[in-house]
Task: structure prediction
Amino acid sequence: MKKVVLLVVAMCWGVFSFAQDAAEKITQANEAMQSKDYAKAFELYESAMSNLGDVQVPDAINFNIGLAAYNSDNYEKAIEYFDKAIAADANVAKAYEYKAGAYGKLKKSSEAMAAYKKAIEVAPEEAASLSYNAGIVAYKGKMYKEAIEFFSTAVEGNYKGKTAQYYKAVAYKKLNDDEAYKATLVEGVEKFADDKKMSKALANIYVSEGNDLYKKGAAVLSAANEKVNAGSMSTADDAYAAEVAKAKKEFSAAMEVLEKATALDATNANAKKLIEACKAAM
Result:
């Protein structure tokens, strides 16, 4: 009977020792979090949680553990603990946000989008910033339609509007929607006149359009000159004059578009060359 009593005492002491050890590890983990040693913090938290004993911990600790896991690149574990935080109704909006980020890091774009949508649902006042982050993940995951939707919300909420507008335009480009690509850049330049990235992109579109018009004019003029060389038309003919006038109309239209390009990007060498070519042809 005496041996049994001693065994029970030893077991109780062991439980108390585990509990005390767990409490110390949680304190150390909190300190590691403060010093941004996330890998150490996560290791300590995990060890403590596996031997809690009678130690009572707040539900919010699951968010802290998830954050430690996230910042030490342990994304699967981060998702596990963020889910626990969400289930415990602890820091739910941020838990969904970081859960989405973890899925993004794992290149699980669909899951990331679902988590971002839940974060926005829980914290609509943060919709602009959350939508921007969601847009980036969607874009990287080649979910361009979703990216456009999220970036639109970010622009409307004035969160990193310039970048959101630019990537919204590029997402349209990825979808081969050139009309929407141009329209989004035009809108972007109007809203953010100082943004060089969008200005240069729109200038390149105008250069391409100007080049097409120049080629049309050159083709008309070339065809008329071929007829002159073949003897079927004279430069004195009204028909020749009409073809020259038609070509000049194309060159004039080209110059108008190309001047838009140089107004947006004065360094665009192609625009300058085409303008000179138009002048020479006229």
